[in-house]
Amino acid sequence: MQPGSAEEDWREDCAPRRVLELFATKWTSMVLHTLHARHGGVARTGVLHRSLPGISKKMLVQTLREMEGSGLVSRHVQGTMPPAVEYRLTPLGRRFLEPVELLYKWGRANPDALDALGSRPSSRW
User: Fold this and answer.
1) Mind listing the pLDDT tens digit for each residue in 40-62?
2) What residue ranges define each of the domains in the chain, with the CATH number in brackets?
3) Residue 88, CB half-sphere, CA atoms under 13 Å: how many?
4) Which residues contact 6 (CB under 8 A, 6 or more apart)?
């Protein structure tokens, strides 16, 4: 979007805002990245929980439900006793990996820029 661009480029439902809304919580991108990078796109809930230090079980389940509702992951209940729940990246979820992985790559290459950021009151880092 450039200065002077059409007003519809700045609407609430414009593409950049929709992308940022999807990643408004840190856990969505982290779950996508972890499913892809550490588990080949498929993982059970407990495995994901152990792979994401700092996330509560409640937040993980909430995030996974939101991601399932958005079409980023699919939920599969295995017919074992007790039932095991597995989450898989969908084709749509795999498409969203590209911007997530670019951000993670940039972060790893630019730790000095991240260190230069002032702390935010809501930040836990």
Assistant:
1) 999 999 999 999 999 999 999 99
2) 26-109 (1.10.10.10)
3) 7
4) none
CA distance 65 to 25: 14
Map residue 62 onto helix, strand or coil.
helix
Q: What is the pLDDT of residues 9-41, one digit of tens each?
A: 678 788 888 888 887 888 999 999 999 999 999
Residue 3: predicted pLDDT: 59
The structure tokens 């935010």 sit at 120
Residue identified by tokens 């609407």 is 11
CA distance 105 to 54: 21
110, with CB counted inside 10 A (0-12, 13-18, 19+), is: exposed
